[in-house]
What does this fold into?
Amino acid sequence: MSNKTVNYKEIYRITSAITPIQSDCGELCGKVCCQPDSEDDLGVYLFPGEECMFTGKEKWLQWERRHPDEDDFPPSWEYPVYFVRCTGLCPRKQRPLNCRFFPLAPHLLKDDTLFLIHETLELPYLCPLIARRIPLRKDFMEVTALCWQRLLADPRIRDLVEMDSREREREGCRPNIIYPVSRYFRQNQRHNSCTNKWANRYTFEKSDPNDRAD
Ligand code: SF4
Ligand code: SF4
It folds into this structure.
């Protein structure tokens, strides 16, 4: 698979300045998601091809090459899957995409409707943005949505998002749907009463309706 399926330079460019809220959300929690945990196994995976954004010599990053089947990636993912840990605060412009998108994650319905939800992974810390359902900036949600639409052009990333989405549904996970991306929802303005059976089981984040997509 060509690494050019996704233009990472462009995605890094459009996400360089976005932040989940107006102020520095790290002040709410002491930057807990950027601190090593007691096991020192906190880090992020890179998307296939995202490694082109790094030299491999960054002093603030430790690299690990992982086997996709050992870390439950879909069969389409090949060795190596890069897992990176930061050893200190990163230069903000260089932070990996998974750091830029947090606390949002994609959820793809079987009919291709894409939502952004609060991350549902079990984490060793509590993110106040999720726990307190703090409204997120509209531009943050819009840019994150645009990036996911571009990332899903890579079948490996799509496989992963589909796999995670089916798993949530099987487990009866009830994520907070923060941002409905698909045209269907934008056109119909039915953010709180969509007809999709799966989505109907979940509640939309209602704390700041003015921040929704039009
Ligand atoms: S844990 Fe949540 S609130 Fe804290 S720095 Fe990370 S994203 Fe921001
Ligand atoms: S790369 Fe940067 S944003 Fe991501 S966890 Fe490390 S310090 Fe935080």
Notes: Confidence is low (pLDDT under 50) at residues 183-214. Residues 63 and 84 are 5 Å apart (CA to CA).
